[in-house]
Amino acid sequence: MANVEAMGDVLRGILEQLAKSNEISQALIAENRALKEMHAASPVLAASPSTEMVRAQAGGHRTVSNAKLMGDLARRLPKYAYSVTEPDSFKKWIGRYELVFKEDGENLSERERTRLLIGCLEESTFQRFVDSQRDIEDIYNVTFDETVKALTKVFGNQSSLMVRRQACLQIARSSGLYEDPVEYTNKVGEAVVDAQLAKMSGDDWGVFVFLRGLDTSGDSAAKVYLMQYCESVEKKGETVTLSGIHDEWVRFLQLPNLHHKHLVNRKAPVKSRGSALIATVQDMKLKNVSREKGPSSKRSLPKKREPNPSKWME
């Protein structure tokens, strides 16, 4: 009898556990049914992603892999390779393919989009970009737009604004590079925008015309020196003025050592014996003439003329 009663107690315990488990299951089924009906009744909720998916996206990761989409887009995008001869090549490349990343890759997470962009860099170009971003712990955690800005800075035009403005004057069809009218017009438009001609102030235009006018053979060394001077001032974030570049030009002309230092950097031609003799004779003639004229024949040097800034503003 004792065994029978013990067996009965065990069976009753099992039945009670089954009943409780059944109640829990029924409650879960009812809850799921209610949620399903709620989603069906509300189009907004029906179209929204699940709670788990939203949570995953908020953390920057997705539960569903976009590897296939990334692979498809990677096959469509050509590799980008930086070239020194084409300083604006990345600007043109991203301008052509940016919509592929943003529209065709709309379902990608920010990290996946950045990975896809950096994956388009050719090996040496990739290494150069990585070296420039050493302060960033994980370059793939940077947003797509910020990565584009960084790439544009690293692989963009490194020429100073002054050099780009002077380069506008070198555009000419006589060079034979722009036989197509459309190509010529596009080049002019790109150069004007890149040189920011629309933002030029009065001082900018003054310096621009000043440098343009130094076109004699004797001005070549001075022009190179003054362009370097303008670049150094520009890098400091300061403005080059017309009076400032005039003073620097006069300083260049008055300092022989500085002047000769910036002349064409090449060895002086070796004079032949005959030319050296002729030069000696000419030098003796000049000395004789100066003795005949005497000290009274010396002419006084003209007074230094200073530029008048007030006339520029008229």
Automatic annotation (TrEMBL):
Positions of the DUF7083 domain: 69-158
Residue ranges with Basic and acidic residues bias: 286-295, 303-314
InterPro entries (alphabetical): DUF7083 (IPR055510)
Highest taxon of the lineage: Eukaryota
Annotated spans, Disordered: 286-314
Protein known as: DUF7083 domain-containing protein
